[in-house]
Amino acid sequence: MNHPHLGAHIPWAQIGSALETVLDANLVPEIAIKGPELDLLDEVLLEEVVQTLAKAGVRPSVHAPFFDLNPGALDPLIRQVTYQRLSQSLYVASRLNAHLMVIHPGVDKWRYPNLEQNWLTLAKEFFPPLIEQASACGCRLAIENIYEETPDLLVQLVEEIDSEWFGHCFDAGHWHLFGKRSMAEWLDAISPQLFHLHLHDNRGLADEHLPVGDGTIDFRPLLLKLAKLSSLPSMTLEAHSPEHLKRSLQQVKTLFS
User: Fold this and answer.
1) Using one digit for the tens of pLDDT, what is the confidence trace for 23-35?
2) In this structure, are residues 112 and 151 in contact, taking their beta carbons and an 8 Å threshold?
3) How confident is the model at residue 4 (pLDDT cuts 50, 70, 90)?
């Protein structure tokens, strides 16, 4: 299956060795970059990657840095640094002609007890200028579920921002670990603005990033949902080794057949 929307995760640190492998497999790279890497960006390497992608006629996705960052942080200095990192990431996304950039929300109920609406208010102020930058380079932004037990907060954020450039990334592995709603309900809630999927598996105890089919996730509700959508979201296999990627690809081909 040469699925036109199917991609593979590549850390920026491995871009030199992994990019050709992913492209040769007819997969779209999702390039994950960390904050400190943005400060030490090798412009020569970046230009090589730009040329390789252009030659292959591929628009990648980018995974923005997320460690220590939070677009709805209560501390304005944390929001400021988050903005700097995401804006730097969009510069890279723009150079790469990326079609989409994934962002983590950085919120959870334990660190924000009864403060989720405060987080939401600040996040709604945070995103519009970033969305303006994203739209200028033709790169949509997708916010990914991490620790969320329900999709409600992220749905509220996306609906109230109300931009064609800002939507959801559904991460099946994170849903399996933290979600308290069925996959079908979750997908129904986010489907109006479902831009992207992260596909990997786990046994419900840790974020193992196993190949699809090697854990305990039932992917059938996702397949049923995708069958009903008028346009498919892009998808990334978040495998953390070449062996896992190969296995995941085989399992996904079987699923999609």
Assistant:
1) 999 999 999 999 9
2) no
3) low
Q: What is the DSSP string of 122-182?
A: HHHHHHHHHHHHHHHTT-EEEEEPSS-SSSHHHHHHHHHH--TTEEEEEEHHHHHHH--S-
140 forms beta bridges with 100
Q: What structural domains does the chain harbor?
A: 6-256 (3.20.20.150)
Confidence bin at 2 (pLDDT 50/70/90): very low
Take residue 116 and report the two structure tokens written for it.
Answer: 């989720």
Cβ atoms within 10 Å of 48's Cβ, excluding its own = 14
- Pair 105, 72: CB distance under 8 Å: yes
For 113-128, what is each residue's pLDDT tens digit? 999 999 999 999 999 9
Q: Are 149 and 179 spatial neighbours (Cβ–Cβ below 8 Å)?
A: yes
pLDDT digits over 167-204, tens only? Answer: 999 999 999 999 999 999 999 999 999 999 999 999 99
- The tokens for 126 are 């945070």
The two three-digit tokens of residue 234, written as one number: 């892009």
Q: How many residues does the chain have?
A: 257
195 φ, ψ (degrees, to nearest 5): -95, -30
Residue 5: the pLDDT is 81
E strands, 21-96, where?
28-32, 61-63
CA distances from 108 to 78, 187, 243 (A): 16, 20, 33
